[in-house]
C-alpha cells in the first residue's frame, strides 16, 4: 500500500510542474500590457517602463517564471490589478462558494444515480432499464445553462418558490443561503445524473458477468445479496473514478452556472477578471483550479484500492 501511495504522489509532481508552466505561458499570450492597464490610457512611456520593472515584466520569461514560482510556493499569488487585493485570499474565498455548490451537487447526484444505475443493470433489458437509460440519455443531452434558465423560469418566476437571482452566504443566513443554492445545485444534479447512471450500469453489467457472481448464485444466495454485497463494491470502482473527474471538472468549469444564477464563485471571478484584464487574478484562478483538479484525482487514486484491492497488487 505504501508503494502504491508513493507512486501516485510521484506521478502527481510532474503534472503539477506541467500545470504551472502551462498557466504561466497561457497568461503571457493574453493580448495587452498589464503595466499599461494598471496605469491607464494617460500613462507616459517612462511610467509604464517603471511599472513593468516593478512587476518584473522587463525580465526574461525564464526569470519571470522562476520568480513567480518562488512566490507561489510561499503563498504569494500577487495582487489584483483592479482592486489591489491579495489574489490568494480572494481566490480561496470564491473557491469556497463554488465548492458549496459543486460538492453538494456531486454528492446528491451520486446518491441518486449510482443505485439507479445498479438497478438498471440488475433489470437489464426490462422496462425499468430502458426507462433509466432513456432518462440518463435525455439528461446528458440538456445543456446546463438552458436547464438552469428553465428551472429559474418555472420555480422562480412561475411558482415563486425560490429566489431567482443573487446569493446569500450560508454563514450569515443558513436558511436564506440554502434557498439561493437550491436551483444551481438542482441543475448540476440533474445534468450529472445522466453520466453516473450510465457509468454505474455499465460497471455493474461487467461485474455481473464474472465467474464469482455465477458461483454465488449456485450457492443459493438471493439476487439482492449478490447485487449489493458482492457486485456493488467491485462495480463502484470505475464509477468512483468518474465521480472524481466530475468533481474536478465542475470545480473548474462552473462559470456558466455561476453566471446564470449570479453566484460570486471562482468561475464568475475568472470571467470578470478576463473582461477586466486582471492578469494576476486570472493566473491565480487558473493555477488554483488546475491544482484542485490534480488534488481531486490524486485523492481518487489513493482511495481506489478501498473499492478494488487488486489495484495495490499491481
UniProtKB/TrEMBL annotation:
| Listed transmembrane segments | 9-30, 95-118, 130-157, 177-197, 239-261, 281-304
Q: Please provide the record's keywords in A-Z order.
A: Cell membrane, Membrane, Plasmid, Transmembrane, Transmembrane helix, Transport
Localization per Swiss-Prot or TrEMBL: Cell membrane
Domain of life, per UniProt, equals Bacteria
Coiled-coil annotated spans: none
What is this entry's stated membrane topology?
Answer: Multi-pass membrane protein
Keyword check for Glycoprotein, yes or no: no
Asked if the keyword Metal-binding belongs to this entry, the reply reads no
Pfam families (UniProt xref): BPD_transp_1 (PF00528), BPD_transp_1_N (PF19300)
Q: Where is the ABC transmembrane type-1 domain?
A: 95-304
Identify the main location. membrane
Tell me the PANTHER family matching this sequence. DIPEPTIDE TRANSPORT SYSTEM PERMEASE PROTEIN DPPB-RELATED
Belongs to which family? Answer: Belongs to the binding-protein-dependent transport system permease family.
Protein name, as recorded: ABC transporter permease
At the highest ranks, the source species' classification is: Bacteria, Pseudomonadati, Pseudomonadota, Alphaproteobacteria, Hyphomicrobiales
Amino acid at each position: 500500500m505504501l508503494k502504491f501511495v508513493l507512486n501516485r504522489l510521484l506521478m502527481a509532481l510532474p503534472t503539477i510542474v506541467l500545470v504551472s508552466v502551462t498557466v504561466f505561458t497561457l497568461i503571457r499570450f493574453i493580448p495587452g500590457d498589464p503595466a499599461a492597464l494598471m496605469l491607464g490610457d494617460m500613462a507616459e512611456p517612462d511610467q509604464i517602463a517603471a511599472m513593468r520593472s516593478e512587476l518584473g515584466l522587463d525580465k526574461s520569461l525564464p526569470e519571470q517564471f522562476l520568480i513567480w514560482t518562488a512566490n507561489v510556493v510561499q503563498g504569494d499569488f500577487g495582487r489584483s490589478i483592479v482592486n489591489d487585493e491579495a489574489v490568494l485570499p480572494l481566490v480561496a474565498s470564491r473557491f469556497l462558494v463554488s465548492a458549496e455548490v459543486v460538492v453538494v451537487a456531486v454528492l446528491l447526484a451520486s446518491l441518486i444515480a449510482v443505485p439507479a444505475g445498479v438497478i438498471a443493470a440488475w433489470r437489464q433489458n426490462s422496462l425499468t432499464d430502458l426507462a433509466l437509460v432513456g432518462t440518463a440519455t435525455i439528461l446528458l443531452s440538456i445543456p446546463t445553462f438552458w436547464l438552469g434558465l428553465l428551472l429559474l423560469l418555472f420555480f422562480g418566476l412561475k411558482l415563486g418558490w425560490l429566489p431567482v437571482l443573487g446569493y446569500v452566504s450560508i454563514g450569515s443566513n443558513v436558511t436564506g443561503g440554502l434557498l439561493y443554492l437550491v436551483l444551481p445545485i438542482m441543475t448540476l444534479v440533474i445534468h450529472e445524473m445522466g453520466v453516473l447512471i450510465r457509468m454505474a450500469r455499465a460497471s455493474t453489467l461487467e461485474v455481473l458477468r464474472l465467474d464469482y457472481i455465477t458461483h454465488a448464485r449456485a450457492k443459493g444466495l438471493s439476487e439482492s445479496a449478490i447485487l449489493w454485497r458482492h457486485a456493488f463494491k467491485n462495480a463502484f470502482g470505475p464509477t468512483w473514478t468518474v465521480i472524481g473527474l466530475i468533481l474536478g471538472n465542475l470545480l473548474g468549469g462552473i462559470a456558466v452556472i455561476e453566471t446564470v444564477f449570479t453566484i460570486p464563485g471562482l468561475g464568475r471571478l475568472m470571467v470578470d477578471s478576463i473582461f477586466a484584464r486582471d492578469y494576476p487574478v486570472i493566473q491565480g484562478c487558473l493555477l488554483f483550479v488546475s491544482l484542485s483538479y490534480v488534488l481531486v484525482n490524486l485523492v481518487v487514486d489513493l482511495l481506489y484500492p478501498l473499492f478494488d484491492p487488486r489495484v495495490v497488487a499491481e
